[in-house]
């Protein structure tokens, strides 16, 4: 396969930008809610220079809110960092980690030059996403203590130096409690203290992502971290597919929720622009979708449960990190292929303004659904299924039986007409 | 303002289609999961002829599933109909309704020619969406009995004639129970019997959509209708903003959920492509988003709570009806301005295939969230909020107090730097 530049897409927005101005504007308004020009934010020369010198994508936007007479604007700057690994996965673990840290350090500096208050990094950002191999060693050696580990220590150093809050996703080893591994994000406060941690609440068993080989479902709940730059939640990777996970962050008061991820083309790319943005809309908060970039090669070939030959890579992590606002608008995405820093100035007041405008919380009927879900979570729940009375021998008893059989569908009644596909 | 054709967008996909073939293909793959060519379905000449003669947009697509050895494909054809009103809102109520029905009749015929099994219509499809006026008469006269009303009777006639299931959204008057008005969809089975009804579960109070002037939250729950063409749910309009509403349809076994809507540019257009599609992904079922088209003028001017002068229209309903599959792919949308019929052949087997592939149901931790929501629905729920210990006088007691005050945010700590927006 030739990978000629004309057949590659660095950003989907590059395609929008080839349209004539009036068409391009319509496209952005309809698809993204706002044009890049409406969201434009000036970026300091020093930030641009660092991006240029170190070869990472750098974009800056802003989400405004209406002026209010009793609240001042609550403007914070968020920086999202996406990165590839830095050296071969066959190198010693500590060298691999340090090489990534060294590469990302100037991105922190660039964020600081742009006045960023909160930095969010991708899932397990200082290691290859090696869970596809199903090998224990050496990958489990990347796991570290959530407060004292080397990745966290680097983020503490950055937090102190630049007075930033840092969301630092790591592979965690809980040495105090049985050496268990978790997929975790440490939240470092702007003074360098550890505010707390969040653990991945939903663990994928999808294709090469059967991460349950390494760690289980998080036991921390849905904490929201009260920082001076707003109330922050973390929803790690596969948790973005679960609306209830996002909802709990809303109910705990989040204004910004970070979604550190690792996901590849072919599997999830058409879902990527949908899910974190839907969460921003449904929950009236800002969301930050962060995905790694690049292809990671492993020393030993592995199969993927798809009948294909063993291979040494998992696929291409497509970056495309973006931020979505509670009003449904979103920023363009970062590069699909290169490291990147997305800087977004946002006014937290927009959250409550959208709560008032759209009324989703007032109308969400939480008590009603709490009862419904309690009933539905019972193993003998009877779905609310309506069947025609006159259809054959169907009776409520038969219907119950069908439900207990776990199918609930009388397949013989479904029309089968394959000839219609052509 | 001039409305020159070059400045109008009939479909957002028309903009995609102006790109060179390789760029266009990338755009569709990344944004929609599939190209129109991959989804292409031949449409019979008679259907195209009807569309051409009656001036409505007509598009046909298909969603395939993998072959299985123990289940035959379960292929059904769905038809979504979007329409404008047909004559002035000042005409007698019955004439208005009949004019719409007369206009939509050939669309049913075109659907039948294409072998459609299930037709879904837009919210309150035989009347103008007059709730913005806040006037009772004459608009409440459009309300009809959910089984014997004239709109339902027409759909029963269509169901019998063409052996179709019809989702018929109406303004309902429950004459048996106190003459109460509801926003309802009647589900007519393929033999013309009424299978049951669904009522709008979440009522908007947004801009011109304060529909609580006319009707309250539905009291039917989340029934799923077992037809021979699959298990069908209905989530009316504003209910699409509520993930729990979609979730209950999943838990009751839905394979296709219809979202009959009425929504306008300026308010919701950037959200439109996100929400029903996210629901398809999160719930592993097909979703059908159906929106009306056109601008509806009323005899009396009304204000909209936005400080602007009284006016006689609510805005432009932007159509753009589409269908999304559980794998995250979607069809292109119908016209933003014209009546339209979207025909989609789909294999219901895809639902369970996606359930197995992505595992969202296996990993959803329903029991966990049932408990969480039960706690969170209490008026004195204490959000899971983590604060720095060393910050001033903060103690758990103070934190609780803040929560009870309903804010939970110590605003004095938030940095305010307006100069950063420029």
SSE arrangement:
2 copies of one chain form a homodimer.
Chain A lengths: L11 H5 L4 H12 L12 H10 L2 E7 L11 E8 L10 H21 L4 E4 L28 H13 L2 E10 L5 E9 L5 E6 L5 E2 L2 E2 L13 E4 L2 E5 L8 H9 L4 E6 L7 H15 L2 E6 L1 E10 L8 E8 L3 E3 L15 E8 L1 H10 L7 H11 L8 E3 L8 H9 L18
Parallel strand pairs in A: 1-16, 2-3, 3-4, 10-11, 11-12
Antiparallel strand pairs in A: 2-16, 4-5, 5-6, 7-8, 9-10, 12-15, 13-14
Helix pairs in contact in A: 3-4, 4-5
Keywords:
alpha/beta; 24% strand; disordered C terminus; 422 residues; homodimer; 7-stranded mixed β-sheet; 17 strands; Nitrilase/N-carbamoyl-D-aminoacid amidohydrolase
Tell me what you see in this structure.
Chain A folds into two domains: 36-364, Carbon-nitrogen hydrolase (Nitrilase/N-carbamoyl-D-aminoacid amidohydrolase); 367-407, no CATH class. Chain A is built from ten helices and 17 strands. In chain A, the strands form four sheets. In chain A, strands 1-16-2-3-4-5-6 form a seven-stranded mixed beta sheet, sandwiched between helices. Residues 391-422 of chain A have low confidence and may be disordered. Chain A is α/β, with parallel strands linked by helices. In chain A, helix 3 (45-54) packs antiparallel against helix 4 and helix 4 runs parallel beside helix 5 (150-162). Chains A, B: GO terms for molecular function: beta-ureidopropionase activity. Chains A, B: Belongs to the carbon-nitrogen hydrolase superfamily. BUP family. Chains A, B: Pathway: Amino-acid biosynthesis; beta-alanine biosynthesis. Chains A, B: It is an enzyme of class 3 (hydrolase). Chains A, B: Residues 380-409 are annotated as: Disordered.
């Amino acid at each position: 396969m030739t990978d000629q530049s004309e057949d590659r897409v660095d950003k989907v927005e590059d395609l929008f930008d080839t349209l004539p101005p009036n068409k391009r504007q319509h496209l952005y308004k309809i698809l993204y809610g706002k044009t890049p020009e409406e969201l434009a934010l000036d970026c300091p020369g020093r930030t641009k220079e660092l991006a240029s010198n170190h070869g990472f994508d750098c974009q800056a936007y802003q989400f405004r809110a209406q002026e209010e007479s009793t609240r001042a604007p609550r403007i914070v700057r968020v920086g999202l960092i996406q990165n590839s690994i830095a050296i071969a996965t066959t190198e010693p673990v500590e060298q691999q980690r340090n090489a990534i840290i060294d590469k990302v350090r100037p991105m922190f500096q660039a964020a600081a030059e742009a006045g960023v208050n909160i930095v969010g990094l991708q899932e397990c950002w200082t290691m290859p996403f090696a869970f596809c191999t199903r090998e224990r060693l050496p990958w489990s050696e990347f796991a570290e203590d959530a407060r004292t580990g080397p990745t966290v220590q680097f983020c503490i150093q950055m937090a102190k130096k630049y007075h930033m809050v840092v969301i630092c996703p790591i592979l965690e080893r809980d040495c105090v409690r049985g050496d268990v591994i978790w997929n975790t994000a440490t939240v470092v406060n702007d003074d360098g203290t550890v505010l707390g941690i969040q653990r991945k609440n939903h663990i994928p068993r999808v294709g090469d992502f059967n991460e349950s080989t390494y760690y289980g479902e998080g036991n921390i709940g849905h904490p929201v971290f009260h920082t001076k730059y707003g109330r922050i939640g973390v929803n790690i990777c596969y948790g973005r597919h679960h609306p209830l996970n996002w909802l709990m962050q809303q109910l705990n008061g989040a204004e910004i929720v970070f979604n550190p991820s690792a996901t590849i083309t072919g599997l999830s790319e058409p879902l990527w622009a949908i899910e974190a943005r839907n969460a921003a809309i449904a929950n009236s908060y800002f969301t930050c979708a962060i995905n790694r970039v690049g292809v990671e090669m492993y020393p030993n070939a592995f199969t993927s449960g798809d009948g294909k030959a063993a291979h040494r890579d998992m696929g291409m992590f497509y970056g495309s990190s973006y931020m979505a606002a509670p009003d449904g608008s979103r920023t363009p995405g970062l590069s699909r292929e290169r490291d990147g820093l997305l800087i977004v100035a946002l006014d937290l007041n927009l959250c409550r303004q959208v709560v008032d405008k759209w009324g989703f919380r007032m109308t969400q009927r939480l008590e009603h659904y709490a009862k419904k879900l309690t009933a539905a979570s019972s193993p003998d729940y009877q779905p609310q299924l309506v069947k025609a009375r006159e259809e054959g021998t169907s009776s409520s008893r038969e219907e119950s039986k069908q439900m207990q059989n776990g199918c609930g569908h009388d397949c013989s009644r479904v029309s089968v007409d394959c000839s219609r596909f052509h």
